[in-house]
């Protein structure tokens, strides 16, 4: 169950990271509310996952999910570059996430 909670925490990290763009420097009320909600929920769920998972592994996976998801959505939503080096680097992060998960099962 902790791995599922950690995965959801990672998805919420993507949500608040992307949400920051939509807050326009925290000048837009509803995007700011959604971003803050996602941030708090992400941290709470990470904290719950840490009750049974190793902190180094859980934190690295949480950050990795957030980084990869945010980069992919940045490409999709904001037209950020999607060059080969960036995509290969994202694939390497995914491989690292999978490796950390496998090392802790």
TrEMBL record:
Topological relation to the membrane, as annotated: Multi-pass membrane protein
Entry-linked SUPFAM superfamilies: Multidrug resistance efflux transporter EmrE
Keywords linked to the UniProt accession: Cell membrane, Membrane, Transmembrane, Transmembrane helix, Transport
Location(s) in or outside the cell: Cell membrane
One family name in Pfam for this protein: Multi_Drug_Res
Transmembrane segments: 29-50, 57-78, 84-103
Key word Cell membrane present: yes
Family of the protein in this entry: Belongs to the drug/metabolite transporter (DMT) superfamily. Small multidrug resistance (SMR) (TC 2.A.7.1) family. Gdx/SugE subfamily.
Record-given protein name: Guanidinium exporter
Annotated organism of origin: Shewanella algidipiscicola
């Amino acid at each position: 169950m902790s791995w599922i909670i950690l995965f959801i925490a990672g998805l919420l990290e993507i949500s608040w990271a992307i949400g920051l763009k939509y807050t326009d420097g925290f000048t837009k009320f509803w995007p700011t509310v959604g971003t803050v909600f996602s941030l708090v929920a992400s941290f709470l769920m990470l904290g719950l996952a840490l009750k049974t998972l190793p902190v180094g592994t859980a934190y690295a996976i949480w950050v990795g999910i957030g980084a990869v998801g945010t980069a992919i959505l940045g490409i999709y939503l904001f037209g950020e570059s999607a060059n080969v080096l960036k995509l290969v680097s994202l694939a390497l992060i995914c491989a690292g996430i999978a490796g950390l998960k496998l090392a802790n099962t």
